[in-house]
Amino acid sequence: SRSPLPVPFPQRSAREHQDGERALREARSVRAEQRDRLQALQEQVEQLRQQEQRLHQERLSLARQRERLQRLRDELSPGGPGTLLGTVPVNGLGSALAAPVAPGAQGLLPGLLPPVGMFLGDGGDTLASAALYGHLLLLKHRAQMDHDFLENERIFLESLKKRP
């Protein structure tokens, strides 16, 4: 059980200096890691904020689209405002032409179908928008058939008037 020999002062001082330098390097390393982590967290917070903002904008867009769809459903439903079973709105101005509609000829007159983009808005590629577009195309086709039918009836009536 020998006691260690005393370390001369200059050697001890040099070792403590090296220990201090190593501790300083470790502290700087820890500080750099924490700074990097803080920066990564700040970037994540910013990304989440931007994502939240995009989601909010999408919700607003969907709400506007739902309102447009509901207005269109109301306008196209039998007996609803703007019903196309007797009068035809002109350019959305609220005035209407008195246009008698023959029985079974319930539809739009050609050329008066509003542009689909007016109703679809920003999210035009959604399934509901595709269904709406298909429904509008069907209505336009029926309207063309109704128009042709009415034109044929007009020609027939004129031919009856010309007979003796």
From TrEMBL:
InterPro entries: FBF1, FBF1_C. It comes from the Eukaryota. One of its GO terms (cellular component) is ciliary basal body. Residues 1-32 are annotated as: Disordered. Signal peptide: none annotated. GO terms for biological process: cilium assembly; establishment of epithelial cell polarity. Residues 13-32 have a biased composition (Basic and acidic residues). Residues 13-162 form the Fas-binding factor 1 C-terminal domain. It holds the Pfam family FBF1. PANTHER family: FAS-BINDING FACTOR 1. This is FBF1 factor. It comes from Rhagologus leucostigma. The gene is Fbf1_1.
